[in-house]
Amino acid sequence: xxxxxxxxxxxxxxxxxxxxxxxxxxxxxxxxxxxxxxxxxxxxxxxxxxxxxxxxxxxxxxxxxxxxxxxxxxxxxxxxxxxxxxxxxxxxxxxxxxxxxxxxxxxxxxxxxxxxxxxxxxxxxxxxxxxxxxxxxxxxxxxxxxxxxxxxxxxxxxxxxxxxxxxxxxxxxxxxxxxxxxxxxxxxxxxxxxxxxxxxxxxxxxxxxxxxxxxxxxxxxxxxxxxxxxxxxxxxxxxxxxxxxxxxxxxxxxxxxxxxxxxxxxxxxxxxxxxxxxxxxxxxxxxxxxxxxxxxxxxxxxxxxxxxxxxxxxxxxxxxxxxxxxxxxxxxxxxxxxxxxxxxxxxxxxxxxxxxxxxxxxxxxxxxxxxxxxxxxxxxxxxx
Length: 384
Hints:
Largest sheet: 10 strands, mixed
Distance between the termini: 25 Å
C-alpha cells in the first residue's frame, strides 16, 4: 500500500527516523548509567514499546490505569504509573493487575497513600510506591525541600502494611519554559534538568539519612523529553539518578523542535490530510481547508506560536514550507493559509508535523509505519 492510498486524516510514522530516535535515547541512558523507562503515552503502541525494550529499555511508564491494563495485557511486566492514583475503582484495578505484573505508582499525600494501602490490603497485595517530588513545576508532588512533609509521608508509607516505598519520582515540566531573559533553549533545558536531578538527589539523601530509603536499592526517577535529551547524571552522598522517563522522543513534534530538543528532520510523526476546499482572498492569500482538525492535529500551542503544526513540502525531505501556516482548527477541519498563493489544490495531500505528538496519537485507532511512500506496517493504538 502507498501513502496516497490511505484514508485521511492519517498519522504516518517514518521507520528510519523512529529507529534513530529510539537508538539515540537508549545510548544517552546507557552513557549516563541510568535505566530508560520510556513513557508510552506518546505512542500508545505495544509494537513501539517492544522496539524500546529490544533496545534495552527497562520497564515502561504510563499515564493512566487504562494504559497500565492495556500494556499489561500486551505482555509488559514492569509498569510504572507516573502520578498519584485516586478515584473510584482505579486502585482496585491496579491491585488486580499486580497479580502478574510489577505495578508501581506515586503518592504525594498521606491521604492518597492511605487509600492505596487500603485498596491493596483488601486485595491481599502490596503496592510499590514512589514519593512524587515537585522540583519546582507546581503540579503534583511534595515540594523537594519540604523536609517535614517528606518525612511524614515516608514514615506513613513505611508503617503501612500494604505499601512498600521504593524511591522518588519527579516530572521536569519546567523544561517546557518559559526561558529566562537572554537564555537559549539549550540553556533552559540544561538548567531545568540539572535542577530537577539535584533536587531529587537532595530529597533522597534526606530520606536515606532518616532511615526511610535504602541507598542501595532506592529508585530515583526523573525526566521529560526536553530534559532527557541533555541529561547528565550526578552523585550526592553515594546516590545517583537510576532512571529517566522521556516519552515524546520516539516521534518528537513541533514543540520539541521549538524547544531545541530536536530538529524538524528528527520528527518521525507526520499527519497527512487532504484538501477538501480552497478559496482566495483579496489580499492574495489562498486558504485550503484540509480534513485534519483538532482531533488529528491537536489544538495545543504555546505563547508566541501562531501555527497548529509545521507544514511540510514533503515528508521525505522534512523541509518546512516557509509561508504556509495552519492558522485555525475546528474538530474535523484545518485552515492552511499561504500568502501569495498556495501550492495545493482540492484533492492534494498536505503533510503537517503536529505541535504535540501525544495528543495527536490519542485519537487514532492506528498509526502507519512508512518507508518513503510505502506503508510497511500498521501500529495499533491502545487505551485511546
